[in-house]
Amino acid sequence: MDLRRWPVYRQLTGADRLGRGAAARSAETERLRPRTATADRVVKSVCPYCAVGCAQNVYVENEKVVQIEGDPDSPVSRGRLCPKGAASLQLTTGPAREHRVLYRRPRSTHWEELDLETAMDMVADRVIATRESTWQDEDDGARVRRTLGIASLGGATLDNEENYLIKKLFTALGVVQVENQARLCHSSTVAGLGTSFGRGGATMFLQDLQHSDCIVIQGSNFAEAHPVGFQWVMEAKARGATVIHVDPRFTRTSALADLYVPLRAGSDIAFLGGIINHVLQNDAYFHEYVVNYTNAATILNEDFQDTEDLDGVFSGLDREHRAYTFDTWRYEGVGATAAAASGARDEAYDERTRKIRESGRGESHGAGGPAIGAGVPETDPTLRHPRCVLQVLKRHYARYTPEMVQRVCGVPPELFARVCDALVRNSGPDRTSAFAYAVGWTQHTVGSQYIRTASILQLLLGNVGRPGGGIQALRGHASIQGSSDIPTLFDLLPGYIPMPHAHAHQDLDSFVAADAARKGYWGHMRAYVVSLLKAWWGEAARAENDFCFDHLPRLTGGHSTYETVLAQLAGECKGYFLLGENPAVGSANARLQRLGMAKLDWLVVRDFSLIESATWWKDGPEIETGELRTRDVATEVFFFPAASHTEKAGSFTNTNRWLQWHHQAVEPSGDARSDLWFMYHLGRIIREKLAGSTAGRDRPVLDLTWDYPVEGRLAEPSAEAVLAEINGFGPDGAHLSTSSLLRDDGTTSCGCWIYCGVYKDGVNQAARRRPGGEQSWIAPEWAWAWPENRRVLYNRASAAPDGTPWSDRKALVWWDAAAGQWTGHDVPDFELDMPPSYRPAADATGPMGLSGTDPFILQADGKGWLFAPSGLVDGPLPTHYEPQDSPFDNPLYGQRRNPVRQVFSHPHNRYHPSGSDPGSEVFPYTVTTYRLTEHFTAGGMSRWSPYLSELQPEAFCEVSPELAAERGLEHGGWATVVTARNAIEVRVMVTERVRPLRLNGQVVHQIGLPYHWGPNGYSTGDSANELASVSLDPNVHIQEVKAFSADIRPGRRPRGAALTALVREYRTRAGITASTGMEL
Amino acid sequence: MGLLSGPEPDVAADAGHADPPPRVGFFTDTSVCIGCKACEVACKEWNAVPEDGLDFTGWSYDNTRALGADSWRHVAFVEQRRPDGDGGMRWLMASDVCKHCTHAACLDVCPTGSLFRTEYGTVVVQEDICNGCGYCVPACPYGVIEKREEDGRAWKCTMCYDRLGDGLEPACAKACPTDSIQFGPLEELRTRAATRLAQLHVAGVSDARLYGHEPTDGVGGDGAFFLLLDAPETYGLPPDPVVTTRDLPAMWRYAGMAALTLFGGITAISMFGRRR
Amino acid sequence: MSESVVTREGVRGQRPGREASPAALRSGRRGGERTVVPDAEFASYYGRPILKRAPWAASDIAGYFFLGGLAGASSVLAAGADAAGRRHLATVSKLGALGAIGVSTALLIHDLGVPSRFPHMLRVFKPTSPMNTGSWLLAVYGPSAGFAALTHVTRLFPRLGATSTSLAALTGPAVATYTAVLLADTAVPTWHESHRELPFVFAGSSMCAATGLALALLSPARHGSVRTTALLGGLIELAASRRMRRRLGLLAEPYRRGRAGLLTLAAETLTLLGALTAPTARTRKAGLLCGGSLLLGSALTRFAVLEAGRACADDPKYTVLPQRRRKEAETREESPPEMAPPLGLS
Ligand SMILES: Nc1nc2c(c(=O)[nH]1)N[C@H]1C(S)=C(S)[C@@H](COP(=O)(O)OP(=O)(O)OC[C@H]3O[C@@H](n4cnc5c(=O)[nH]c(N)nc54)[C@H](O)[C@@H]3O)O[C@H]1N2
Ligand SMILES: Nc1nc2c(c(=O)[nH]1)N[C@H]1C(S)=C(S)[C@@H](COP(=O)(O)OP(=O)(O)OC[C@H]3O[C@@H](n4cnc5c(=O)[nH]c(N)nc54)[C@H](O)[C@@H]3O)O[C@H]1N2
Ligand code: SF4
Ligand code: SF4
Ligand code: SF4
Ligand code: SF4
Ligand code: SF4
Ligand SMILES: [Mo]
After folding, report:
1. Quick check: bond before A553 cis, omega within 30?
2. Has domain C56-185 been given CATH number 2.40.50.140?
3. DSSP C85
4. pTM higher than 0.90 for the full model?
5. Of A47, A346, A704, B63, whose CB is crowded by the most CB atoms within 10 A?
6. Residues lining ligand 2, judged by CB closer than 6 Å?
7. Closest CB to C6 among A23, A211, A231
8. pLDDT tops 90 at residue C12
9. What are the residue boundaries of the structural domains of chain B, listed by start?
10. The three-state (H, E, C) secondary structure of A899-924, written as one string
11. Which chain B residues are closer than 8 Å to C316 by Cβ?
12. Is the pLDDT of residue A521 over 70?
């Protein structure tokens, strides 16, 4: 032995006499190197969890991912990650991932292994057979060319390219029930923002929050659900901004705010309406902005009657059909909307238009406001005309006084005044305020109107389109924005083009007719549609055949995921693809979801692990209660292991509307494949099997452009090739650089017009990664944002009508008279060379139909809409309504709830008595459901991760000490929460962070329930969605999971049949029948 | 100054490192912590630290409970009524970690030299040396280091010694979304902390205080120090820890006296009772 | 108004987010003044201990301490016996020392998380680590005790025998008392603050053990002065314990409560009994009983100390209260006292 290797020797001979440092170093210490340094390569990627879209560096050694950490170059995340992003290594390389294809035969009790090829073949056969047996050429006398026998769900976790192939293939197959998380998540955002401003995306980007002077976070738990994005709130805070959090619970966001305002869940319209009233009564609005940039001056049709006049409903309510007709909501001087004017006014037609409304048109305003009909609206720039929008608004909100706010929301007037004051003080030419919200607002039966209320307020305060101002809609999944833009949604085609409707849209001309004569960019709709058809059907799409417009299946009503479940229960929908979604946990009334799946012929689940939606037939809650018996469940189940984000290339669209490319780091192992691979090869196999078919229904499939180059051992289709198709090609075959080059003559193709430019010059712009530190805060050279790489939407509004910035401290985009164009920090969201002085000719259409002072270029009138004359089916102005299941009456009006909300009375979906109705006292508390930083949505990406599970190991409820005392709940013990649908057990967290509210002389107790748990995985528990009902916003079919009534009792829930008996007993006690809660 | 206690400006050089880089450390500013626990997870991912049990504690949102062999960062959660009596709440969150003490008792008492002082002035366990004697465990005045049942060795934060060698910041600090954990040369961090404290006091956060920043304190100052908003013990930290080895000379003195007593006592009596 | 400004030229007034001062954190107390009067109640983090208890198995480590003490004191007794010409006493003490140190070391190794790495104890020479010092000590003492016993039994190499007996006798007392330093050199207040007395407790207790062994195994005729030594040992231990607990104040509480309290009571009773009966233990049976209780008392003493340390580490008040008082005293006096005042804590 070498004596010199003995530390004592080194001690005696060196400087470290005490043996506490250099001398004590060991052999391993000498060899120590970080694995980031020994990695073979670093691959640029993006966090697969939430829509902040933090950039990741993926380190690969010996073709294995050895480390994933933040990429400091990213302008939005600056190298930071929240616990979920930090757990990505465990997510992608952990033992929880399945790598084999599994198959469950009908009535079998167990999984079998199946080889991938056979499984693909079997699925293709099932699709072909089910499609054939359920094919409809016509429905109700109209051509529909579709199947309602197959549905798919999922997309928000997937790449844009994957969503594109899903929508393309399924549409060609005639499958219309294509849905994803966007329905459950932010569909109301698209309707709310789209009708207000013209586009359904957040008006600002996260980093811009640093320039806000006041940030109101309401309906969002920013710090917990978007932790890395929250750094920009902290930046604003450090610079002196006021941060306000309005939430039923004191959360980790409240802990960092300047002002916390507790309010009753489901009461935000009253709260925001109160602020609007404050602003209007005190003349605190930004006059010049409001007069020039909003429709405040527009005069309304004489026939319009407000909720003031009709005790809570608007004119045009058709009580029998639970629907509004919109004729009276028009601007003065404008004809009724083209669609409404064209039809015969017979019963049948009314019935059909009602169905058209059901088909979710609200969302089609994601990239363009609704049509307003022909003609020039009359205006009164003095804002004095009694029927001008501003005066109507004033009257509408006059009863939303601070006292009323207290009665409805439980917010004391002093506290409310502080919020009003902070907002007003921090808005105007010199200052800007921002609102940040997420699903605390969207998930209500009046969700779209929540967002409208904030939009109105921000328009009045002049905060939209300006630095640090606007509305930050904090999106959910990594690519939920992308899966709305390239929609795996039943009602949309890429770029928010509506899906054609059987009755209204028999051909291309009638389809675009409503929009063709329009002003603003939506006037180009025909070019967008034709280019899309060219992208899908290539050579086959010719002018003679309407560019294959007829290949598109038609809608006849609502086919949202919730309606699909009812179709499954009714036996109409027989085949189901779950492409990265877990409805058995994540969707409202989870039991209904499972019972629906139990009626299917076949089910395909693609996921990382065996989520609840894949295994309900053998270990779901209904097996325990005896409602289902495995041996009786005839559903065939296929499980395909999915490739993770590190194992495939593609783009995610984050909440900034950035398309960010993630590169493939390693190949997936075992049978794991990307969803791109799955869709591409499924399509290929189906096309091979149908080759030579002469059936008319197979033409769209066989004509489809489906020739993507494949690469590598696994024959992975090239995601870049798909992105190039989405971007589009010009007549010369060159990659298009902007959507303004799109033509309606078939010479251009483009898979999604709002993404046109992402592959400009043949370069993947989404993969751009110029470090944030080397750019301005706008960071134009990081990734690519739609539209046209503009980062702040409507940024023309950052300048006064004359084109100069409103203030020296809020300059973003301005008119450079010398250069004759708009210039500034951001890409101007405006016709580049249209001077502020431009005024359109009376007959001008398209972009040139708007004036040089119209910042909302996708609106038909170029204005921000305080009043929405069209586009929403439940009213032109937001009005407070109680939730579907509420212990309270509406203190504002006789009309208790949204009269046109979508409700479905079904034996498994019963509602509660509300307000003062008898039986209401059986469910006396208000439940709200939400997220925790440590978990992700339905848990598929967190409950299987030991590192995340240990941080929040069990399902729990949060209750106030007062409620705990009232019901004998013990901290750390168990409680059972009961509704008419189901009962769940959770651990009890008694905390002062939840406090009882006083309103209207009543004390309101709220119960907080994180919704992440389910019976499978590493950390398990009951799902909050067992309790929720399916009750939807009529515009976009989003479920109300943010506020519903319930009871809570100490102890664990009964097992087996006793559970069903308990719920039945509650229903009986409350006197619940099929008609309960179905009142208008 | 002292090698056992008191200020020691150059710990690395005193430990025999020639030309050491500046001493590095953490300044954890709990006033901007959002309690996200990214630090906990990032640490585990980087260091492959095992999962630490799935217990629902009911301690607010803290299900980690304490630092230990399998948790090298621990975020504490304290729910309080605001002391100003307006009925408002405070929710304190603080990410705790090994203090990398100037006078590290764990290191001092480690019999094998497994624990050692690195050239960065940090305190690190060498996995290939530790024999699991467990002595470091009760020696640490903060209750940080712990023996892992499964492999018998002692584990704690290494301040990502391997990463430092490659110029990378520690995994936890890198992940922290709000920069609550700041990593850097200790001197610089101390200056920054003083500025920050003053800033908070001006902003009316009068409870803000620094913890572990004083080179004159019982452990000669912490390599990882904190800005707290309440008394240290509220967060589970000792209010005024002292390195135990400060008293080691005295201990040996008393032990020597006792040994002499034993030797003298027995010998004297033996001699007295010698067979005559 | 916020300081952030977006001018035509670009952004001004940037400050990093970590400089944010959310008002929710404000305490509402005006100015920077600190409350002087400490809160009557002591705050803890959900009652969680601040310190980690030593991960030592009591049977291993208390056994190791006890047997080390037995060995160390026996070696001194043996040297005395040699000098006094008491061969039987020497035989018992030398063999006893060898056996005890052997088992003691085995227990120590057994308690290691990675026993095969026991040799790492001698990887460094570390004066700051009592366990390391102890290991080197054992490295000298162990062989000495071994040679002393072997040469004694075999009667070979008398010179070596004499030298090793002396060496063992010289290092033996250190072996018996260093373990007190080992415990005191921890953050556990009950141990640390007893660093003055604990070595005496261990010294006395070791004397009891060594004499106990001799009293139990030798016929009364051969006890010689051992009975007196036993009495002395017992008195030293008991007196030191008393003084220790008095000085510990609040920190002595663990010695009075729970398991540690029972162990202490048992240990002291046995020691007292053994020590007081030693001078009169003139029958074989009395010798056995007296020696037995001395041995058991000595062993229980180590268990009691170990257990008291655990109880102390498990309750945060023992960590927090003394520190808070010390800190308050310091802030009052400006110049901190050189050493913590462990007195008057109760
Ligand atoms: N850690 C984590 N991050 C996530 C996710 C996750 O699961 N975990 N999911 C991602 C997804 S898919 C989404 S959509 C986003 C969602 O992000 P958020 O919307 O922020 O998430 P939630 O927790 O569902 O709801 C936010 C807050 O709304 C409050 N709230 C409930 N009802 C009401 C109400 O009526 N009015 C008001 N004002 N507030 C109410 C709740 O108390 C909660 O604090 O987060 C994304 N990020
Ligand atoms: N009560 C209540 N219910 C809610 C909400 C609420 O706030 N309260 N929020 C709603 C919201 S906003 C949302 S977005 C939904 C979310 O609900 P879900 O979308 O059902 O929940 P996730 O767990 O995110 O499911 C996504 C699945 O996709 C898998 N996955 C991830 N990446 C891939 C991939 O690349 N390929 C494939 N094939 N699979 C992948 C994941 O493992 C995971 O199982 O929940 C909704 N439900
Ligand atoms: S989950 Fe969201 S905030 Fe967290 S690291 Fe991923 S993208 Fe960033
Ligand atoms: S905190 Fe404890 S473990 Fe960390 S260096 Fe100091 S004594 Fe050692
Ligand atoms: S357990 Fe390991 S690190 Fe701790 S003192 Fe013993 S050898 Fe050193
Ligand atoms: S410095 Fe490294 S080892 Fe220490 S807590 Fe942070 S990540 Fe873990
Ligand atoms: S990562 Fe930062 S903000 Fe999150 S808990 Fe840790 S210290 Fe706090
Ligand atoms: Mo979502």
Report:
1. no
2. no
3. T
4. yes
5. A47
6. A 48, 156-158, 181, 184-185, 439, 443, 476-477, 579-583, 586, 606-608, 611, 642, 675, 929-930, 936-941, 1011, 1024-1025, 1028, 1041
7. A211
8. no
9. 2-244, 246-276
10. CCCEECCECCECCCCCCCCCCHHHCC
11. 233, 236
12. yes
